[in-house]
Design brief:
The chain is of the alpha+beta class. A hairpin with a 5-residue loop joins strand 3 and strand 4. It is globular.
Length: about 250
């Protein structure tokens, strides 16, 4: 029995789960999807707020493609471990800071996709110029400290920069995307990588991207904000499970 979509907020599609087992299964699916699409390789993490509690599920210090249910950790919002045998990823402070700051955020995906990493290496904000990117707003900002986010102070600085947004690029260190479900956070991460890839292709061809205005992004995001993430997630899961062959 999978997640059930029960409605929308002005920004996001919400997914609910009948049990903690379903939420854990969704986190593991996210680990496989992010690995399949190279949002993560050996490093990266996924976290999810456990509904109705002040606790989160968090992945351990292990490549996401290898994570099992037994590896998942349960932490409170101060980072104290309630369940699980291993150690959380080093950047747990960043996840905790965002969850404390943003009650609407139910999940976070953290990775190092190659095209976003190109912007991260240059500490260059990513402006949005295509449809799916409009889910991210108009500009994805850059946290300009080229270090792992390992302290509470650094995590709070990332949460400050994120504000009410959807994603942050970390200088020399990949990205973080948030969502109101595990699936939504992963879709946001994948849309961010697609945005970066298309813009680098456009710039490499000598074109000048026509960036979205706030009005453009709001209208484009509003056109199909309910079904777009659902449809995308179904595709990403299907491709990861080998149900069809991708052409690129």
């Amino acid at each position: 029995m999978g997640p059930r979509f029960r409605g929308t907020t002005p920004k996001r599609t919400i997914m609910t789960f009948a049990s903690s087992a379903e939420l854990r299964a969704e986190v593991l699916t996210a680990c496989r999807v992010l690995t399949h699409f190279r949002i993560v390789e050996g490093f990266g993490h996924v976290s999810a707020r456990i509904p109705g509690t002040d606790r989160i599920l968090f992945t351990p210090r292990r490549a996401l493609g290898l994570v099992t249910d037994a590896d998942l950790l349960e932490l409170d919002l101060d980072g104290r471990k309630n369940a699980g045998a291993g150690a959380p990823a080093l950047e747990v402070a960043m996840h905790l800071a965002v969850f404390r700051r943003r009650p609407d955020v139910m999940a976070i995906a953290r990775g190092h996709p190659r095209h976003v990493a190109a912007y991260a290496c240059a500490a260059e904000p990513l402006k949005v110029a295509h449809g799916f990117g409009a889910n991210l707003g108009t500009v994805v900002p850059v946290y300009k400290r080229p270090f792992l986010v390992v302290s509470r102070e650094m995590g709070e600085a990332v949460a400050d920069l994120l504000g009410g947004g959807e994603a942050v690029i970390l200088q020399g260190n990949g990205m973080l995307a948030v969502g109101q479900s595990v699936a939504h956070a992963c879709v946001q991460a994948l849309f961010l990588e697609e945005t970066a890839e298309l813009q680098l292709m456009s710039l490499g061809a000598g074109f000048t991207p026509r960036f979205y205005t706030p009005e453009d992004a709001a209208r484009r995001h509003g056109d199909d904000r309910v079904h777009e993430p659902i449809r995308a997630w179904e595709y990403y899961v299907g491709a990861t499970e080998g149900r069809f062959t991708r052409n690129r």
